[in-house]
Amino acid sequence: MKKLILLTAAMVFIAACATNQSGRTGPADKSATAETVNMLAGLKAITEKGIMFGHQDDLAYGSGWVYPDGESDVKKVTSDYPAVYGMDLGHIELGSPVNLDSVPFDDMRTLVKEIWARRGVVTFSWHADNPLTDSSAWDITSDMTVASVLPGGGNHDKYTAWLDRVAAFFSSLTDDDGVAIPVIFRPYHEHTGSWFWWGQKLCTTDEYISLWRFTFNYLCEEKGLHNLLFAYSAAGTFTDAEQYIERYPGDDYVDLLGCDYYQSGTDGKEAFINDVMQGMAIVTAVAAEHQKLAALTEAGYESLPDSTWWTGTLWPAIKDYKISYVLVWRNAHNRPGHFYAPYPGQASADDFVEFFNMPSTLFQKELTEFDIYK
Ligand code: BMA
Fold first, then answer.
1. 302 touches ligand 1 (CB under 6 Å)
2. Distance, CA 124 to ligand 1 centroid (Å)?
3. Catalytic residue status for 302
4. Catalytic choice (35, 298, 302, 354)
5. CA of residue 90 to ligand 1 center, whole Å
6. CA distances to 31, 283, 311 from 315, in Å
7. Nearest residue CA, atom 10 of ligand 1?
8. What percent of the chain has pLDDT over 90?
9. CA atoms within 13 A on the CB side of 234
């Protein structure tokens, strides 16, 4: 009898370990497609090789050109595309054919296919309008917005209709063989700051977590999407792990942990390096503990007036951390000075080539060769 009890206890223990293990190492979505499972494993594996470079809206527009010209400022300077391509879903919720920065969703779909064909990585943020006021994502006039979209809230049906549009777009990302293209979804970002309707002072911890979990469950279970990895990405406003993780929805809802940092002004160099290092130390430690990916999900220095910013500021700030990628923000074509990657002739272009040539920075060709999806 004693033996039987011991045996049963041992079996329960082994089963518990196994569940924990598989639950933690695979995607948060337990029904994720084979390609999505591979993507997560490949992203983990490639951190041993280096840090991937990413750029928001890289293929959509840049300095002096707008898609469909089919260019890339990063490629013009380095001869290669970035490894990670950021795109934004803002205004898809409204049924608009173009996003908040005027990029047509149809073009995004074409670009995602192209990127998938060469084994790049796509990550989507979502600057969703404020569903309570119908104003922008930055409308923080009410702290009732998040509550209003949760089950039982006055805008819940409106919110699920918004998610239906998000889901329709994600499910339209298929290749010519009908394979669902896996992408990283990074909703409700910079939530530790208070400049978006889902920010720190605009909702409670419970409300934020409920918003995240509802969104995750609705997309994955209700809508049957299984090509998404989920990124939790804070604003660089936290000073310790406890603060960073305060609104973490849980291991079953997140695949990647990140945060966003920008340098402001020429005298912001040291502060940027110190802040990023402190942030990356926290994010990578928490990610390791939870067996998740880590990344510097947004970074940059607007207008890049520092000619050695890449090797002299960004690289020293990130080089010691095991992160998947660093993504710099967009090169607006219609807002002078609002750019974060160099273009030919730009002050930091030569230094960017040096950064590109470093063995530990990864761009598209290295990613194609490595193939994280295999
Ligand atoms: C901000 C700016 C805005 C843009 C938004 C969403 O940081 O670049 O111009 O609309 O991101 O991409």
1. no
2. 13
3. no
4. 298
5. 10
6. 37, 17, 5
7. 101
8. 91
9. 24
Residue-wise pLDDT tens digits, 309-331: 999 999 999 999 999 999 999 99
- How much is the pLDDT for 2? 53
CA atoms within 13 A on the CB side of 204: 6
List the catalytic residue out of 71, 93, 190, 207.
Answer: 190
190 is known as an active-site residue: yes
- Which H, E and C letters describe 95-124, residue by residue? CCCECCCCCEHHHHHHHHHHHHHCCCEEEE
Q: Using omega within 30 degrees of 0 as the cis cutoff, is the peptide bond preceding 344 cis? A: no
For residue 22, what pLDDT band results from cuts at 50, 70 and 90?
Answer: very low
The minimum-distance atom of ligand 1 relative to the CA of 101 is 10
Sign of CA dihedral 307, 312, 315, 318: negative
The verdict on the CB of residue 101 being under 6 Å from ligand 1 is: yes
- pLDDT tens for residues 110-140? 999 999 999 999 999 999 999 999 999 999 9
CA distance 28 to 31: 9
Atom of ligand 1 nearest to the CA of 57: 12
**Taking the C-alpha atoms of 11, 13, 18 and 20 in order, what is their torsion angle to the nearest 10 degrees?**
150
Is the distance from CB of 134 to CB of 126 less than 8 angstroms? Answer: no
If one counts every other C-beta atom within 10 angstroms of the C-beta of residue 274, the result is: 11
Rounded Cα distance between 345 and 77, Å, is 9
The pLDDT of residue 265 = 87
Ligand 1 near 298 CB (within 6 A): no
Per-residue tokens: 72 = 């890339």
CB of 100 sitting under 6 A from ligand 1: yes
The confidence band for 17, taking pLDDT boundaries of 50, 70 and 90, is: very low
Q: Which atom of ligand 1 is nearest to the CA of 100?
A: 10
Instruction: Please choose, from the candidates 76, 87, 77, the residue with its C-alpha nearest in 3D space to the C-alpha of residue 115.
Output: 87
Tell me how far apart the terminal alpha carbons of the chain are, to the nearest angstrom.
49
Mean pLDDT of 189-197: 98
- Look-up: residue for tokens 């998740």? 292
